[in-house]
Amino acid sequence: MVLSELLKAIQPIQIIGSTETEITGVNIDSRLVQAGHLFMAMRGTQTDGHVYIPAAIEKGAVAVLCEDVPEAKQEGITYIQVKDSEDAVGKVATTFYDDPTSKMELVGVTGTNGKTTIATLLYNTFRYFGYKVGLISTVCNYIDDQPIPTEHTTPDPITLNQLLGQMADSGCKYVFMEVSSHSIDQKRISGLRFAGGIFTNLTRDHLDYHKTVENYLKAKKKFFDDMPKNAFSLTNLDDKNGLVMTQNTRSKVYTYSLRSLSDFKGKILESHFEGMLLDFNNHELAVHFIGRFNASNLLAVFGAAVLLGKKEEDVLVALSTLQPVAGRFDAVRSPKGITAIVDYAHTPDALINVLNAIHGVLEGKGKVITVVGAGGNRDKGKRPIMAKEAAKASDRVIITSDNPRFEEPQDIINDMLAGLDKEDMQKTINIADRREAIKTACLLAQPGDVILVAGKGHENYQEIKGVKHHFDDKEELNKVFNG
């Protein structure tokens, strides 16, 4: 593509050099640059891409997009100066990959909890309807039925547009995508066209990055502020921030709720460990999901599918066939009648939701034993809160290691224990070795009890000192139960 074509979507401050140069690729990582590429220097959270301009040119870059033009300019290289390279990168990548989201219906899901579940269930629902569908999520990306491994909830703009381009070329008609607060803040989704956006809820998370809940909220809200006029915004009325998110959007706003009057209204009629009987907009349906939070997630899926043009009755049939997402309220049964639930809950709110769901089914007929930890090098403020919530809603608590990363597991555990009072401590033990903690929970459980193993869900590794070691909560439970 000729450079002048590539720059149509942005407004450079100045261009030094020829814009008639042929561009064969676009990159933000100088190590991936090849002959004929445009290198875009971004100021990241870890490093400043401007430092790598000489290395990119050495590898064959013929043009450089940057905020600060280098003093020592090389002959034959075109320099494009922009005010905001983060914003420009997404727009340039979209143009280079032939504006893939103009050929598909892209729906983004944002919020603290429920993003993976809703995006994945929408993907499964539309595949059930017979469409080719794309999925961009924390667990895995899919181009129809082909899995593409994932590193981040939302990839960088180049990877993202490349992936969306492959989806468009494969004939995908719909794409469902988790949109993280980081990706909104870092403008990774700049240049994409959304057909719709869904807001799930907002609770404390990622404060290591955003610093305050207000900044976190603003990042999520920006997604809806930028939503185009012809798109829909579907927001959760049961969350106090539901209407805050959509107050400045140009898109058409719709609501869903389990509590109040809304466009998509739901209620739980019956609940068991095998599933629930629900009522959505005065239609009954049985689903293989448990818990109020899952009823809310399914209601969001129902609403979005209807807003994308599907008949309510057809969507309900599709929902009744769906299975829970890996590592989200994933039940394991022991031959002795003990139920273990593996869940990704790694925020106080997610933990409360899962424990409430367990109590909703148990109705006081069994004890709840919770195994929980917290990730290292992440928001430390939520650690004591998570321990407190676990103690409040469990008969026994085992505080253990999650992904300690570069922290000492016992230091993280001590931060969690600081949230407990004398009474809580009497039912709490701490075991740093996660395998031993799970084993101990299984030994403490009696038939009819429920063990919750929270925090890692679908993850099949434990990250210690920068190394990922194989570890799977569900695998460990099966070993003990069937050993």
From TrEMBL:
<dbReference type="InterPro" id="IPR035911">
    <property type="entry name" value="MurE/MurF_N"/>
</dbReference>
<keyword id="KW-0131">Cell cycle</keyword>
<dbReference type="GO" id="GO:0009252">
    <property type="term" value="P:peptidoglycan biosynthetic process"/>
</dbReference>
<feature type="binding site">
    <location>
        <begin position="111"/>
        <end position="117"/>
    </location>
    <ligand>
        <name>ATP</name>
    </ligand>
</feature>
<feature type="binding site">
    <location>
        <position position="188"/>
    </location>
    <ligand>
        <name>UDP-N-acetyl-alpha-D-muramoyl-L-alanyl-D-glutamate</name>
    </ligand>
</feature>
<dbReference type="GO" id="GO:0051301">
    <property type="term" value="P:cell division"/>
</dbReference>
<keyword id="KW-0436">Ligase</keyword>
<comment type="pathway">
    <text>Cell wall biogenesis; peptidoglycan biosynthesis.</text>
</comment>
<dbReference type="Pfam" id="PF01225">
    <property type="entry name" value="Mur_ligase"/>
</dbReference>
<protein>
    <recommendedName>
        <fullName>UDP-N-acetylmuramoyl-L-alanyl-D-glutamate--2,6-diaminopimelate ligase</fullName>
        <ecNumber>6.3.2.13</ecNumber>
    </recommendedName>
</protein>
<dbReference type="GO" id="GO:0008360">
    <property type="term" value="P:regulation of cell shape"/>
</dbReference>
<feature type="binding site">
    <location>
        <position position="186"/>
    </location>
    <ligand>
        <name>UDP-N-acetyl-alpha-D-muramoyl-L-alanyl-D-glutamate</name>
    </ligand>
</feature>
<dbReference type="GO" id="GO:0071555">
    <property type="term" value="P:cell wall organization"/>
</dbReference>
<dbReference type="InterPro" id="IPR004101">
    <property type="entry name" value="Mur_ligase_C"/>
</dbReference>
<dbReference type="InterPro" id="IPR036615">
    <property type="entry name" value="Mur_ligase_C_dom_sf"/>
</dbReference>
<feature type="binding site">
    <location>
        <begin position="153"/>
        <end position="154"/>
    </location>
    <ligand>
        <name>UDP-N-acetyl-alpha-D-muramoyl-L-alanyl-D-glutamate</name>
    </ligand>
</feature>
<feature type="binding site">
    <location>
        <position position="459"/>
    </location>
    <ligand>
        <name>meso-2,6-diaminopimelate</name>
    </ligand>
</feature>
<keyword id="KW-0133">Cell shape</keyword>
<feature type="domain" description="Mur ligase central">
    <location>
        <begin position="109"/>
        <end position="305"/>
    </location>
</feature>
<dbReference type="InterPro" id="IPR036565">
    <property type="entry name" value="Mur-like_cat_sf"/>
</dbReference>
<feature type="binding site">
    <location>
        <position position="30"/>
    </location>
    <ligand>
        <name>UDP-N-acetyl-alpha-D-muramoyl-L-alanyl-D-glutamate</name>
    </ligand>
</feature>
<dbReference type="Pfam" id="PF08245">
    <property type="entry name" value="Mur_ligase_M"/>
</dbReference>
<dbReference type="InterPro" id="IPR000713">
    <property type="entry name" value="Mur_ligase_N"/>
</dbReference>
<feature type="binding site">
    <location>
        <position position="378"/>
    </location>
    <ligand>
        <name>meso-2,6-diaminopimelate</name>
    </ligand>
</feature>
<comment type="similarity">
    <text>Belongs to the MurCDEF family. MurE subfamily.</text>
</comment>
<feature type="binding site">
    <location>
        <position position="455"/>
    </location>
    <ligand>
        <name>meso-2,6-diaminopimelate</name>
    </ligand>
</feature>
<feature type="short sequence motif" description="Meso-diaminopimelate recognition motif">
    <location>
        <begin position="402"/>
        <end position="405"/>
    </location>
</feature>
<dbReference type="GO" id="GO:0000287">
    <property type="term" value="F:magnesium ion binding"/>
</dbReference>
<dbReference type="GO" id="GO:0005524">
    <property type="term" value="F:ATP binding"/>
</dbReference>
<dbReference type="InterPro" id="IPR013221">
    <property type="entry name" value="Mur_ligase_cen"/>
</dbReference>
<dbReference type="InterPro" id="IPR005761">
    <property type="entry name" value="UDP-N-AcMur-Glu-dNH2Pim_ligase"/>
</dbReference>
<comment type="function">
    <text>Catalyzes the addition of meso-diaminopimelic acid to the nucleotide precursor UDP-N-acetylmuramoyl-L-alanyl-D-glutamate (UMAG) in the biosynthesis of bacterial cell-wall peptidoglycan.</text>
</comment>
<keyword id="KW-0573">Peptidoglycan synthesis</keyword>
<feature type="domain" description="Mur ligase N-terminal catalytic">
    <location>
        <begin position="22"/>
        <end position="97"/>
    </location>
</feature>
<keyword id="KW-0963">Cytoplasm</keyword>
<dbReference type="GO" id="GO:0005737">
    <property type="term" value="C:cytoplasm"/>
</dbReference>
<dbReference type="GO" id="GO:0008765">
    <property type="term" value="F:UDP-N-acetylmuramoylalanyl-D-glutamate-2,6-diaminopimelate ligase activity"/>
</dbReference>
<keyword id="KW-0961">Cell wall biogenesis/degradation</keyword>
<keyword id="KW-0132">Cell division</keyword>
<feature type="binding site">
    <location>
        <position position="180"/>
    </location>
    <ligand>
        <name>UDP-N-acetyl-alpha-D-muramoyl-L-alanyl-D-glutamate</name>
    </ligand>
</feature>
<keyword id="KW-0460">Magnesium</keyword>
<keyword id="KW-0067">ATP-binding</keyword>
